Amino acid sequence: MSPRLLAPWLWLAGCGGEPLQRMIEQPKLEAYEESPVLARRAPPEGTVPRERRFFAPEVRTGLQGGRPDAGYVERNPLPISRELLEKGRRRFEVVCATCHGLVGDGQSIPARNMALRPPPSLHQLSQRPDGYFFSVITQGFGLMPSYAADIPPEERWAVVAYLRALQLSQRAALADAPFEARRKLEQGR
Ligand code: HEC
Question: How far is the CA of 141 from the centre of ligand 1 (A)?
Fold first, then answer.
């Protein structure tokens, strides 16, 4: 027998007589392939993911009634609690402080190195309504990107609440502090 005729016999013997079917060649539907059985159907109209949370339009947008022409929501729609402020602080320090500085005064290393428009101090903007800050985080502002994908709506409001606390901290009078805190501040001098 010549070696040319022997070779296929050896190959079949190694695979138990049946050549293996490679997965890539098995019958299946490829993504976007046209098919009568539909590999991936569009969900029925009106279907929503079970984990999606619902928010009133103003909570979702920071705009009154969620309408672009109606102006910003004046006050944070979430009840302000210590827990909310702490949540806001965590997010602020991880995300916003990178550019706007830990106390929001625009002092940060990236700010020093941004040649075009450095991140401003957020203390100059204390006259702006709460919805304005929410909307800047949601939509971005000039060179600042949107952080909507990183920070869910409730936490964006938490950031706004913490930002208010930061603004207040930079212009509060000693008399505004509670008695205990005032005593500590006076002793610290
Ligand atoms: C990557 C850097 C960066 C991060 C992170 C960032 N910002 Fe900004 N932010 C900027 C820059 C730069 C501007 C100015 C953009 C311009 O004028 O084009 C700006 C502008 C703003 C303004 C608008 C100021 C105005 O003039 O009205 C607000 C409010 C603001 N940022 C808040 C935030 C908050 C809150 C966060 C965190 C959720 C945040 N930023 C995260 C860089 C950043």
Answer: 6
Q: Per-residue pLDDT tens for 93-120?
A: 999 999 999 999 999 988 888 888 889 9
Q: How much of the chain is helix, strand and coil, in % rounded to 5?
A: 50, 0, 50
- Residue 99 CB–ligand 1 contact under 6 Å: yes
Any atom of ligand 1 within 6 Å of the Cβ of 159: yes
pTM over 0.85: no
Nearest residue (by CA) to ligand 1, atom 30, is 136
**H helix intervals, 63-169:** 82-91, 97-100, 109-113, 130-139, 153-169
> Rounded to the nearest 5°, which phi and psi values hold at 144?
-80, 130
Domain with 76 in it: 57-187
CATH number of the domain bearing residue 90: 1.10.760.10
Q: Which atom of ligand 1 is nearest to the CA of 132?
A: 29
